[in-house]
TrEMBL record, chain A:
Coiled coil: none annotated. Keywords: Signal. It comes from Chromohalobacter israelensis (strain ATCC BAA-138 / DSM 3043 / CIP 106854 / NCIMB 13768 / 1H11) (Chromohalobacter salexigens). InterPro entries: ABC_Transporter_SBP, ABC_transptr_periplasmic_BD. CDD domains: TroA_f. Residues 1-23 form the signal peptide. Residues 44-346 form the Fe/B12 periplasmic-binding domain. Gene3D superfamilies: Nitrogenase molybdenum iron protein domain. This is Periplasmic binding protein.
From TrEMBL, chain B:
One of its GO terms (biological process) is siderophore-iron import into cell. It is a multi-pass membrane protein. GO terms for molecular function: transmembrane transporter activity. Belongs to the binding-protein-dependent transport system permease family. FecCD subfamily. Keywords: Cell membrane, Membrane, Signal, Transmembrane, Transmembrane helix, Transport. It is found in: Cell membrane. InterPro entries: ABC_BtuC-like, ABC_transptr_permease_BtuC. This is Transport system permease protein. Residues 1-24 form the signal peptide. The chain crosses the membrane at residues 64-81, 93-114, 120-138, 150-173, 193-215, 227-249, 255-275, 282-304, 310-328. Pfam families: FecCD.
């Protein structure tokens, strides 16, 4: 009995010594431009947002939760379809301790410290709130560094450095570069065609989380989906009205702009707005039900008489493309909606399937978009 | 001050003209500037294929109509509140109406599948009613004279604090679920359809009918509870009936547009300055001036941070805060 206990203890000590010996102190620059010193490869990680698993999953598809010791409780609510897919394949995920958010002041520093993380991965948009609440100072005193990543505020600019950064922290640099190469190649398929053809740009309204709230309408300014629209060969009607990434347009501004294409971002948000008018697209979505809801959104005051409604150029796409490293799929889908003749050979569905097969931990299930055009 | 009957009538007529002008401005000014000819053409021959016509009928007209209804209601409610409490700094908010409406909407959104202004209306109305009844219950004295002014104010402060803190607690715990409520909480006449007004019209109607019936008693109440008794009614009953009018008008307004403050505080002072203290003239004047103020605030909200549309509740607060400070200082300066 004592012998086996001694062996187990010795094994644990040797394992700890081995991992300590393997770990080297590195200094990385995060997307906030901060120099952060960490022991890499990181062994214990807290995710400041649950959806950062999109990044981790692409880098460690076999064991995406191996190093995650705590995470913010948003994945199950914001993206229940993918949460279910991940939970089915990695049931241990449900045992990971959950946190409140840095942004809303419900993060618990004591709980974080108790989990003894090597690093806390934080989203860039929470930086101001993190500093206001002095979470960064408190964690620094405990020897826990914060590293900022971003794939929401400026996904086109920050996803690549964020991917490289996490790749470096996890010792998955090669895998990170492979993902970056793939995403850039997929983006080039749209960018090169648009540059060569220089088509007439349709006026596009992005209805951010349309139906989530009855106050019409939330949208994107020059960043995020607003930028996706421009890259896909459209003209975002909110550009010049909404100064930052996120904002809202009033119904009159939409009617006056008379958009030729409307793209609603949607998801299954029963956790937030039970029975809401949101369009439930995402993996495994009931597209007939989603289409019915999409038709319902054309009845709103802001959509009265607009070109997009009359020509059925009214579409819905998975909202989380705004907050994931898979944005290139959204750009391809938008390009095909805006310029069907120009992108006749482009198959966004095939791209998304290939992305899952090559990089992601879960299998591809269709349902990420729907259109009143029927394609 | 307008003293003679003819000058007062002329004053009301001028108010009506001013309201018509601000109404027209509300319909014609905004992100898209529309000439008067377009407005007239829309009213005579609505063409659903023309963008300008759609903007007027679907957005501008409902917005202006709701601003008139809510502005008038809040102003009348404010006047009656100041009469009831004999406090020139009183407004419908003292009865906890805003806080109650806010709290019940937040609770309803948290517990029920509500996510549209049409759904908020009844929750807000119930909240306004519960809060006001709670204030009136807490402020009742031992006698039959009904609630005392000081007790109403103190009870209102306490009930408001309770409801506001409860709402804020819920908003912090589950802020994501309440994103849909935030714009409503700021107070807005934009994006509301006229169909929202229809179920509330009977309530506005009952309140205005009660107003007309109680106008003499409201005048008597200003001279003291004994004067009301001399008219053959209990002061407590009159206060409760006037309180009911305030609840119906302010509660329905909050339910319709969310939190729009200061209209019920500013307008009664403007109206009294012009028409004196006689409620027969004061209440119609308040209705007209309240409508004008909210219409003007809504028009101004479109140009404060163009091309962004500022909620009208923010605009009335910007106008109202300096006015409130001025009133408070003037009260303080009096011996």
């Amino acid at each position: 009995m004592l012998t086996s206990l001694f062996k187990a203890a010795a094994g644990a000590v040797l394992t700890l010594a081995a991992t300590t010996a393997l770990a080297e102190e590195i200094t990385v620059t995060d997307v906030a431009g901060r120099q952060v010193t960490v022991d890499a490869p990181v062994n214990r990680l807290i995710l400041g947002e649950g959806r950062q698993i999109y990044l981790l999953g692409a880098l460690q598809p076999e064991t995406p939760f191996e190093h995650v010791v705590g995470w913010r409780e948003d994945f199950s609510q914001a993206d229940p379809d993918n949460y279910a897919a991940y939970a089915a394949k990695f049931p241990e995920m449900k045992q990971i301790p959950t946190f409140g958010g840095f942004k809303d002041g419900t993060f618990d520093v004591e709980q974080a410290a108790a989990l003894q993380p090597d690093v806390v991965l934080m989203n860039l948009e929470a930086k101001a709130a993190t500093e206001d609440a002095a979470y960064d100072d408190k964690l620094a005193e405990l020897g826990i560094p914060i590293v900022y990543v971003d794939f929401r505020e400026a996904p086109l600019e920050h996803t690549t450095p964020s991917m490289r950064l996490i790749g470096r922290l996890l010792g998955e640099e090669e895998r990170a570069e492979a993902f970056i190469d793939y995403s850039q190649a997929q983006m080039a398929r749209v960018a090169e065609t648009i540059e060569t053809a220089d088509p007439q740009r349709p006026r596009v309204f992005i209805d951010r989380a349309g139906g989530y709230s009855d106050d019409c309408c939330m949208s994107f300014g020059p960043g995020n989906f607003g930028k996706y629209v421009e890259l896909a060969g459209g003209s975002n009607i909110a550009d010049g009205i909404i100064p930052n990434t996120f904002g809202r347009l009033n119904p009159e501004q939409i009617i006056a702009a008379d958009p030729q294409q409307v793209v609603v971002t949607g998801g299954h948000w029963d956790a937030y707005v039970p029975g809401g008018d949101w369009v439930g697209v995402g993996p495994g979505a009931d597209l007939a039900a989603a289409r019915t809801k999409l038709e319902g959104l054309t009845e709103r005051t802001a959509m009265a008489g607009i070109d997009a409604v009359q020509t059925d150029n009214f579409h819905a796409i998975w909202h989380q493309f705004y907050n994931s490293p898979y944005y290139f799929v959204a750009v391809q889908r938008l390009a095909k909606w805006f310029h069907p003749e120009l992108f006749a050979d482009l198959d966004p569905e095939a791209t998304l399937r290939e992305l899952h097969e090559r990089f992601l931990p879960v299998d591809y299930v269709p349902g990420y978009w729907v259109s009143l055009k029927g394609d | 001050m307008l003293t003679r009957r003819t000058t007062r009538l002329a004053g009301l007529l001028a108010g009506l003209v001013l309201m018509a002008t601000t109404f027209a401005a509300s319909v014609m000014l905004g992100t898209t500037e529309l000439p008067p000819s377009t407005f007239i053409a829309t009213l005579l021959h609505y063409d659903p294929s023309r963008v300008a016509h759609i903007i007027i009928v679907k957005e501008r007209l409902p917005r202006a109509v709701i601003a008139v209804l809510v502005g008038a209601s809040l102003a009348i409610a404010g006047t009656l509140m100041q009469t009831l409490t004999r406090n020139p700094l009183a407004s419908p908010g003292i009865l906890g109406i805003n806080a109650g409406a806010m709290c019940f909407v937040v609770i309803a959104v948290a517990l029920l599948p509500l996510h549209a202004p049409a759904d908020y209306v009844w929750a807000a109305l119930l909240g306004a009613l519960v809060a006001a009844c709670l204030v009136l219950m807490l402020s009742r004295g031992g006698g039959r004279a009904g609630p005392s002014s000081l007790r109403v104010v103190l009870a209102g402060v306490a009930v408001t604090a309770m409801f506001v803190s409860f709402s804020q607690g819920l908003l912090i715990i589950d802020h994501q679920s309440f994103e849909s409520v935030l714009y409503w909480l700021a107070g807005s006449v934009s994006g509301r359809e006229l169909s929202l007004v229809v179920p509330l019209l009977p309530l506005f109607g009952i309140a205005l009918l009660l107003c007309m019936l109680l106008v003499r008693h409201a005048n008597a109440l200003m001279l003291g509870d004994d004067m009301v008794t001399s008219l053959g009614m209990h002061a407590g009953t009159i206060k409760l009936l006037l309180g009911l009018v305030v609840i119906l008008l302010a509660g329905s307004s909050v339910a319709l547009t969310g939190m729009i403050g200061f209209v019920g505080l500013i307008v009664p002072h403007m109206a009294r300055g012009l028409f004196g203290f006689d409620h027969r003239w004061l209440l119609p004047a308040c209705a007209l001036l309240g409508a004008c103020l909210l219409l003007l605030a809504d028009v101004a909200s479109r140009f404060l941070m163009p091309p962004q549309d500022v909620p009208v509740g923010v605009m009335t607060a910007l106008i109202g805060t300096p006015f409130f400070i001025y009133l408070a200082r003037r009260q303080q300066a009096r011996p």
